[in-house]
Amino acid sequence: MALNKKSVDDFNAKGRRVLVRCDFNVPLKEGKITDETRIVAALPTINKLIADGGKVILCSHLGKVKNGPNEGESLAAVAERLSEKLGKKVNFVSDYNVTGEAATKAVAEMAEGDVVLLQNTRFRGKEETKPEDAGEKFAQELADLCDDYVCDAFGSAHRAHASVSVVTKYVREKGGTCAVGYLMQKEIDFLGNAVENPIRPFVAILGGAKVADKLNVINTLLEKCDTLIIGGGMAYTFLKAKGYEVGKSLLDETKVDYCKEMMEKADKLGKKLLLPVDAVCIDEFPSPIDNPSINTTVVDADKIPADKEGADIGPKTIELYSEAVKSAKTVVWNGPMGVFENPVLATGTKEVAKALSETSATTIIGGGDSAAAVNQLGYADKMSHISTGGGASLEFLEGKKLPGVYAADDRA
């Protein structure tokens, strides 16, 4: 899966209209942006194109837009914040049609170094590529606005949407370049190439609630890594597969046989598969989830009482997992070790993050809850790479071809 895609460094944007698909899917509260991480992450690519003298046209989705276009999911707040960050006005085209007359006019009037932001791509209707959903037509209209295309939205790269991958077909038809931005390049370098050709020992840590969410990742990583560590709610289905009783812990009965298969596969391949040896148990799941008023009991993994549920890894497991990480040269982590949203049940996740922060290994955090945990716990600056895409990073780790990545031109 070694990927060698053209990047923004491989073409000169001077005088050219460059459409950049960003990930501006930022959290909004009462119209105000509460976390600007994704905006900041897009700046290097945008600044490079401005410095080249390109005419920079930005597009992104925001939210799920289930009930049609609405001002609550407009990109107006993003345009405002971007203007501040770039130190220059970003011309926001508020037209719900996204690529209509207003957008065409705004682009026609651009000078070199100007920046235009189009309205939320999902306002256009479904972005899927089925002709009846106007996906192809939308992609063609986006391509009509530009000369070249840059995808810098890794969080959306696993979706074959009009603004993510289909647009490249029409840009290429007219002789334009289709490249990836700096953010996408970093994801390819770490998640793609580093996982495909890791410096060993390679340790993978998988957590989160459900085994079903990570079936293919478990299978794929077992073949690639030297040690696979399992934590979080999914660990209890593995413990059940070992013949242990798990009380009221999260359990997927339909995946017990699959977990047995994976343990057998690890043995056959000579890989270590580490499971919790003890667990922090609670009487009832906390409500609300961050309620610290809960009773906890630490028990061995094969002695979980019938009336309790496991909610975090215990101290012996923390020691076991931390030790496994110490000797690693490459570590990939996706999914928390317990109910990390609760301060009482965040210890396992926190200690794994701490162990990663203290190793000299290349440490790659696979987006989603793991990224949130590392950021919240203050270890973000100690990690080699924190992925910007939850679903996309999981699919990349599975070895799937992400449409947004593969749609870019290959380097000669």
Could you describe the 3D structure shown?
The chain has 412 residues and is of the alpha/beta class. Helices cover 36% and strands 16% of the residues. It contains 14 helices and 17 strands. The strands form 4 sheets. The chain has a 6-stranded parallel beta sheet, with helices on both faces. A 6-stranded parallel beta sheet has the order 11-10-9-15-16-17, with helices on both faces. A hairpin with a 2-residue loop joins strand 2 and strand 3. Helix 7 runs parallel beside helix 9 and helix 10 packs parallel to helix 11 (347-358). The protein is elongated.
Please tag this protein with its features:
single chain; 412 residues; six-stranded parallel β-sheet; 36% helix
List the helices and strands and how they pair.
Elements: E1 17-21, E2 28-29, E3 32-33, H1 37-52, E4 55-59, H2 76-86, E5 90-92, H3 101-108, E6 115-117, H4 135-144, E7 148-151, H5 162-173, E8 178-180, H6 182-196, E9 202-206, H7 215-224, E10 227-230, H8 235-241, H9 256-269, E11 272-274, E12 278-282, E13 296-300, E14 309-313, H10 315-326, E15 330-334, H11 347-358, E16 362-365, H12 368-376, E17 385-386, H13 390-398, H14 403-406
Parallel strand pairs: 1-4, 1-7, 4-6, 5-6, 7-8, 9-10, 9-15, 10-11, 15-16, 16-17
Antiparallel strand pairs: 2-3, 12-13, 12-14
